[in-house]
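Suppose a colleague, Dr. K., hands you the sequence of a protein chain of 140 amino acids and asks what its three-dimensional shape might be. Before reaching for any lab equipment, you can write down a predicted structure in token form. Begin with the sequence itself:
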Amino acid sequence: MLTDAKLLQLVYDAATCYVPTEQLNEEQLERLDNITYRWCNCRRCKKAFKIGDETIIPQYAGHANKRTLEVCLSRSFLRKRVDMPYAMFLLELIGTALHELVHILFREFNEKETIDKTWEWLKNNEWVAHWEKVWDSQIS
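The predicted structure, expressed as tokens, is then:
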């Protein structure tokens, strides 16, 4: 059975696969090694995002603490989105976790720069290129 804790670990580990570690400096690598993560039920994660009278989703899907190196993913967001098609649901969680990782790794980035870097890494997907090399070496 996939528990919430195992799902969180799966999502976080998947998000780190998108981080091109060879592009990080020593300080960023140190931060990456020391990041902790958890499900969150804080006020920000429970606050509703409303359009008119309709509540869409919780306001925040996650947040990061740059000082403590903690990534928090919204448990409320998880509960509201679990009915999505599984692939989209997982990609959304992975994208959110990666976004929060970028906040910690690039402390100087504003929100737009963080979004841009997250999309750059998601689209680049260095892990697939790495896996292709591993796969090819096993076949040869």
